[in-house]
Amino acid sequence: MNRSLLIYACKRVVYAVPTILGLLVLVFVISRVIPADPAALVAGEMATPQQVEALRKQYRFDEPLPVQLVLYLKRLAKGDMGKSLYSGRKVFDDLVDRFPATLELTLVSMVLSILIGVPLGILAALKRNSVLDHLLRGVTVAGLAIASFWLGIMLQLFFSMWLGITPLGGRIGMSVDPPASITGMYILDALLTLNGRALWSAAVHMILPSLTLAFASFATITRFTRSGVLDVVQQDFITYERAMGLPPRLVIYKYLLRNAIIATVTQIGLLFGLLLAGTVVIETVFDWPGLGLYAFNAIVLSDYQAILGVTLLAGIAYVTVNLLVDIALSLIDPRKAET
Amino acid sequence: MKGFRLAWKKFTRDRLAFTGFVIIFVLLLAALFAPVLAPYPEDTFQIHPADRLQPPSAEHLLGTDSMGRDILSRLLFGTRVTLVIAVIAVGVSLLIGVPLGLVAGYFENLFSEGIMRVADIFLSIPQVILAIFLAQSFRPSIRSVILALSITYWPWFTRIVYAETRALKKRAFLEATEAVGAGSLRTIVLHVLPNVSSSIIVRSSIGMGFTILTAATLGFLGVGAQPPTPEWGVTIAESRQFLPDAWWYATFPGLAIFIVVMGFNMLGDGLRDILDPRIRRGFD
Amino acid sequence: MTGSNDRLLEVNDLTVHFHTDRGVVQALDRVQLFVDRGEVVGLIGESGSGKTTATRSVLRILPPSARIAGGRIRFDGRNLLTMSEKELNATVRGRGISLVPQDPFNSLNPVFTVGTQVRDILKWKGGRGPSGSIEMERALDMLREVQIPSPWEQLKRYPHQFSGGQRQRLMIAMALLPRPGLVIADECTTALDVTVEAQILALLRGLVREMNVSVLFITHDLGVASQICRRIVVMYAGQDMEDAPSERLFERPGHPYTRELLESLPTPGGDIRDIPGEVPSLLRPPEGCRFHPRCPSASADCRRKRPEKVEIEPGHWVRCFHPVESQP
């Protein structure tokens, strides 16, 4: 890593700080300004008026907003996000417990959509206007128009209910003990502990949720890779490399690809947001015990603090991933570090 | 006028855009004439427990739901809900997003910097999650969904209009660092807006599809429209406990969402090709 | 006339068409052209006259819409048009013939260091020493040769960190590294400013002499061509109009087009005169001689058939029915 890159990374981190701060303030303002009575919303529908008043005191909802904001930021700094009505535990602890399941699902989906989308995008571009290209265009257009919860239900209906070849939901079979927790991600933990039974069960449970979640991002990645390749093929330096008789494989897989992939990598940050949002729906459909299902349960029970916590965490995760993507991008494209 | 006719000719020749247009046209007709088209218009709310969960037949082309209501009729009425949500949400996003984008792009000062930072902050939370949070803060209802979608979608318009306005300025027929005043307002409305309008139109079409999808998602999760509203996402959520037997219950509303969103996306993609400024210059 | 053993590149009756949405663009019409060993030949014409199409045909890197509709291209005695892609890559592109491209700003790959790109040229284009190792030493020598200071450091840098002139020096070094027989320099100074252009021309002239390599120098600028080329071929609208030694071409142009071209050059007096008429569309090029609609001495013949090339003096060919009278 050279100096200009390091400077760029630092700059980018510094730039992300006000965004995260702004995000915290935005969530705070929404939670205090929009509801008719924030205390009542936090207390939940079952709360007695006395309980609401107690909460109002505890969180000092009577104070002016700026004072509340400071108090709220102070509490957040200590990891205090309030208590969940539904689990009765601290929201922060719930989020920590459920984060690995969602991370695992998101990562597998991301890897799947990249592993399938990038090669298909390249192929479609190199064989432009072929049957494959047209077919892929159809699939990718569909991928952006399908409601993922419906796709999940249809896959469940077909593969789990009719054919009975995939589990209906959950992370691991009822009769299988989860692997010893190291990272909290079952597949990874099963690999690390050489637990074959758990690995198989976790992998089988992963198939439908990850494919459903990956579909939309696969479509986007294929599209952007295809247009990226088509864009680069016309560049002077590719013509030059061909004219100099460098082997076509070298030109395509080394020189062309790294340029073309820039457009794709730029998308990955955005796609992560799509995936994160998608987990709410997918985890609901497949009963996947992560943050998404937690959010859904919170919706059903009007568990406001929990929803607030998920929103904050999703925002922070999304900003962080985009930060990492930008830094990764500057590793691929040296020009970026200098702007 | 000649320009319009040429554009129309090009439009009808573009298979993608035209198919999208036809789908949306049919959707509009369905929404408009739902009471006439629906075989059982009263089934929006009336229940017939005796006819519950009938598979598709001549009587009920797409079957019935758990309350014995005709699914086709409810789908047709659902187009109204969907269109109302999407049109208002995209409309409000336009009204907020476009002026902000124009101002931020046209002026180069702290204020425009501020607008873009705020837009960035709104975009820093994945849309569906922010929309859930908002809708939950408002208390779930169709009105909340519309508000939530408007509040989460405007930054996309701001970003695009901002980028286009800045590009336009760079192309240098605008010398614009004058003070804020009637003069600059005139320039923005008369010169900048027409030049960025094609991007706005394209984005609106794609935004309609996107908004319909998100609205259905919110309905499915229970933060949007509430039963017995014949909203498509809500219907799919209701259907889940009757699978796998009542497969039609979940299948058809999902297909309806798919076709409509596809229509808007195809129209948007097609319009992008047609309205591309480089091509448009030919008949301006 | 030189013996045929000295012929390095020979293009005969080359016809190239582009198939576009709006019709067939007849980009080249039976073009003839040759380069002898050790010779520096200029290929001159306005933009759209077919210079770049001609060189791309030689390297067989035409875009997919192009068809070579007729003619022969021989390099070093071998037919390039029937050669397989594989053989072309193994023996011609970057080996026998290498390229100094038009635009140094976009011709280096932006996301790889210059060193990577130089190393790949060496690795694939015959830069291996007796032990099979890649001869980085030779590359460094070559970079010093093109006056790039502290080359070892430079190899670690990315293209955008170099100036235009430096990049063109790099391109020249990369073109010469494989010890090619022929270098095609395609408008290689057009994108540079005048002082840098002069430096690059001087550098190229020196290196070419030193290494005894042939050059096909493509330009739209007669002034630049006259500084470096021994012989010049003039193209217009896809046809080759004239082929003559440089001095002779400037003193006694044989083709009316060449004469008009020379007269349109800015003179020290400051007068610029345009050639009357417009460059024809190659979708529907004029019949016969493509210059006839603008030619002051056009006759009925010129409108019907394309003139053959006539050798009006040894080494001076003109494709015209009415060559300009030689003024003694």
CATH evolutionary superfamily of chain A: MetI-like
Query: How many individual domains of chain A?
Result: 1
Order of helices and strands of chain B: HHHHHHHHHHH
Structural class of chain B: mainly alpha
The structure class of chain A reads mainly alpha
State the CATH topology of chain B: MetI-like fold
Structural overview:
The complex is a heterotrimer of chains A (339), B (284) and C (328). Chain A is an all-alpha fold. Chain A has helices spanning 3-33, 38-43, 49-58, 65-77, 91-126, 131-143, 148-162, 186-192, 196-233, 236-243, 248-286, 291-300, 304-332. Mean pLDDT of chain B is 86; it is low at 277-284. Chain B has a single domain, classed as MetI-like (MetI-like fold), CATH 1.10.3720. Chain B is mainly alpha-helical. Chain B has 11 helices and no strands. Chain C has 328 residues and is of the alpha/beta class. Chain C folds into 2 domains: 7-96 and 178-326, Rossmann fold, CATH 3.40.50; 105-177, no CATH class. Chain C is built from 11 helices and 12 strands. Chain C has helices at residues 51-59, 85-92, 114-124, 136-145, 151-154, 164-176, 194-211, 222-228, 246-251, 256-263, 300-304; strands at 7-20, 23-36, 40-44, 66-75, 78-79, 97-100, 182-186, 214-219, 231-236, 239-245, 309-313, 316-319. Chain C has an 8-stranded mixed beta sheet with strand order 6-7-8-3-9-10-12-11, sandwiched between helices. Chain C has a 4-stranded antiparallel beta sheet with strand order 2-1-4-5, covered by helices on one side. In chain C, helix 6 runs parallel beside helix 7 (194-211).
